[in-house]
Amino acid sequence: MLKIECCGLSATQTKQIIEKNFAGHVEPLAGPDMVAARRVKAGETDFYLGSCMTGAGGSLATAIMVLGYSNCLVVSKQGKCPTAKEIRHMVYAGKHKAFGYVKEHTDIVVPAVVQALVDRAEGIPE
Q: What is the H or E stretch that residue 92 is in?
């Protein structure tokens, strides 16, 4: 079972989406950004989802500081929300541990990112 940290402005909403759609596959955790990023770095949890107003600042900045830029991915930005197919490709294209997105895109981004992470963990090809 994957463990995913839910952080940022829509942490509660992110956690609820995961609980509703991925019960039995993902354990969502909600905590402060810094604590969550450190848990991912220590291997205590698998991934970090962080929402903010821009997608690339706020919550994801904490993950970048702790995990390093190469381990973090900006999934959505203001004015640009990718499709589920585009998100899946982004997730499969790298080995990122943290994902940032605009809080208004939570309902679109979270299910797509988490589904891709679950599928990848189960060995399902892109």
A: helix 84-93
Q: Which two tokens stand for residue 45?
A: 């949890």
Position 57 scores a pLDDT of 83
Burial class (CB in 10 A: 0-12, 13-18, 19+), 11: buried
What is the C-alpha radius of gyration for the chain, rounded to an integer number of angstroms?
Answer: 13
Q: How far is Cα of residue 75 from the mean position of the Cα atoms in its chain?
A: 9
Residue 13 lies in a domain: yes
pTM over 0.90? The answer is: yes
Number of domains in the chain: 1
Q: Would 126 be classed as within a structural domain?
A: no
- Domain span at residue 113? 2-121
Distance CA 78, CA 103 (A): 9
